[in-house]
Amino acid sequence: MSSHESTSKTLLVAFSLSIVCAVFVSAATVMLKPVQEVNKALDRKRNILAAAGMLVEDRSVEEQFSQISTRIVDLRTGRFSDDEDPQKYDQRRAAKSSSQSEKLSEEQDVAKIGRREHYAVVYVVENDTGGIDKVILPVRGYGLWSTLYGFIAVEADANTIAGLGFYQHGETPGLGGEVDNPRWIAFWPGKEVYRDGDVAVSLIKGSVDPASANAPWQVDGLAGATLTSKGVTNLLHFWLGENGFQPFLNNLRNGEA
């Protein structure tokens, strides 16, 4: 066998092997996609429960989530809407569509998200009498290196924070990445959102003085992560403000949502 024939056969074998591997990888991807989607949905439910302080680790996530209903809110009116199916609506995709979102002005866009979608998916926890116990709202905004995605839970008074959690970000581990730290997350329950009708909750530099008159609206800043701390404050001021969920929370408080 000539060296030319040997090289040709080697290349043919390598090419055939790569085709077979590609087919197997593609088939595995297709077969695993339903499993991945189920796991993704389960993880989202886990994060929603955790943000609301409702997650019990030794119980089924699906069982715990059964007490939560998924609803659509029209951010333009501040009211619940049936215009979109909450099980199918893709909020992130809508935020990128010119027909499903609106461009924010520089003054409005304190969270640096560019566009705000018309509709948002929210999660409602009902009490034993069928009234609303708390609502869990999706929030996002730019930190130091990345967009932080999370949920904030608000009590039935539409003002008291029940919990906060971020499930996706690219902040610096040990600094801005401390938004994942359970110790820091534990500072949030009981804090208040509004003061005289304005969003007042914010992160401060250092630790909160419990004796301060401003303590109900203040949370300890992230040590060594000034820009991430500012980003968290900004995203909360946007999503809990007039261009975010404030009209909805006002309507909820007044029984008009």
Number of helices: 6
Strand order within the widest sheet? 2-1-5-6-7-8
SSE sequence, one letter per element: HHEEHEEEEEEHEEEEHH
Please, how many domains? Answer: 1
Between the first and last Cα atoms, what is the distance in angstroms?
82 Å
Q: What does the model show?
A:
This protein has 257 residues and is α+β, with helices and mostly antiparallel strands. It has one domain (67-253). It is built from six helices and twelve strands. The strands form four sheets. It has a six-stranded antiparallel sheet. The mean pLDDT is 90.
Summarize the structure.
The protein is of the alpha+beta class and 257 residues long. The chain has helices at 3-51, 61-65, 91-95, 182-185, 226-239, 246-253, and strands spanning 68-74, 79-81, 101-103, 115-117, 119-126, 132-142, 147-155, 161-168, 194-195, 198-199, 202-204, 218-220. The protein has one domain (67-253).
Describe the protein's topology.
Blueprint: H1 3-51, H2 61-65, E1 68-74, E2 79-81, H3 91-95, E3 101-103, E4 115-117, E5 119-126, E6 132-142, E7 147-155, E8 161-168, H4 182-185, E9 194-195, E10 198-199, E11 202-204, E12 218-220, H5 226-239, H6 246-253
Parallel strand pairs: 11-12
Antiparallel strand pairs: 1-2, 1-5, 3-4, 5-6, 6-7, 7-8, 9-10
